[in-house]
Amino acid sequence: MSEFRPRLPLLCFVALLALVGAFGVRAGFTTESGLRAAQAWLVSPLPGTGAVKVADKSGRQAAGYVWSATRIESGIRLRGSIPTDEDRRTVLGMVKAHFPDLEVEDRLKINAGAPPQDQWLGAVSFGLKQLSHLKRGSARLFDVALKVDGEARSAADYIEVKKALAGPLPTGLTIAGARIRPPVVDPFVFVADLGANALSLSGSELSRQLFRRPGLDDRLELASGAPKNWDEAVAAALHALSRLESGKIALSGLAVTIEGVAPDKGTAVAVSYQLRRDLPALFSTSESISWKEAAAAQDIAAQVIPRIKEMARTEGQLPGGSLPELLPLLGSE
Length: 333
Hints:
By secondary structure, the chain is α/β, with parallel strands linked by helices. It is built from 8 helices and 14 strands. The protein has 2 domains: 161 residues, hypothetical protein tt1634, CATH 3.40.1520; 105 residues, hypothetical protein tt1634 (3-Layer(aba) Sandwich), CATH 3.40.1520. Helix 3 runs parallel beside helix 4 and helix 6 runs antiparallel to helix 7.
C-alpha cells in the first residue's frame, strides 16, 4: 500500500484528463479521434510494437500508430513506426524535399497496424510541411491525429502554419494540438512615428494596441520574446504620443524614448509625467518634448542670429553706417 500511495496524485491527474476529454466529445468540443490522440500522449508504446494502447469509452483496448519528426538546428530526427520499406523511401523523399540542407537521422521501425496508406502518407506530408516553417520543433502523428509544436522561422512562417492548421486538412486528418510561437527577437522593438495626418508603426508586436488616426502605416510583425508587461508599456507610450501634435516613440527592450512637439508647455510637462507614471516597473524613459511657443522662438532665433552676424561683418562697408533692410519674419507684412 505504501508503494502505491505516491502514485495516487498522478493517477488522479490522468483520470481527470480522461474525464475532461470524454466531456468534450459528448459536448461536441472535440471528436473521438481527438480524444484518442489526447490520451495517446499519456501512455507508453506497447512492448515490441509501434502502437500505443488506449482505452475507449467501452473499456476495450485500441492500438494507435505513432510517428514523429523533430527539427533541431542541424538536422531532422525521425522516430516511431513506418509500414514498409517502400513507405520509408517515400517519407525520406518528402523529408529531403522539405529539408534539402539538413541531415536526417532515421530511426523508424517497420510495424504493422498503420492507417490506410494514402491517408497516412498524406498526414505525414502535411506534418512535414508545417515543420518546414519552424526553426525548431516537432510534428507527431497518432494514427492520423497531428500535434505540432515549435518556434516559427519568421512572422510569415508563423502565419502560414496557423492558416494551414485551421484547415482545410488532408482527408481524415485531425489536429490533436498545436503550440506554435512566433519567432523570438532580441531586443524587442516597437516604433511609432506621428505626423500631422499619418501614423507609422514598425518593429514587433505581441498584440495590437492602436489608437485611431488617419493614414495608418502598419509595418509591425508578430514576434515573441518581449519583456514582461510589454503590451502595457506600448499602450502607455502610445497614449503619451497621442497628446502631441507630432512626435515619435521608440521602445527597445526596457528602454522607452519619446520626442516631439506639444500644443503648449503644460501639455509637454503633463505628457512626460504621465508616461513615467504609467510605464510598468523596470521600464525606463527618456523625453525630449518641446511646445509650439518654444518652437516658434527657436525658429525666429534661427533666422535673426545669422542676419545679425552678417550685419556685423558688413557694417564697416556701408555708407553712413546705414543698416541693410531685413526681410519680414514669420510671414509678416
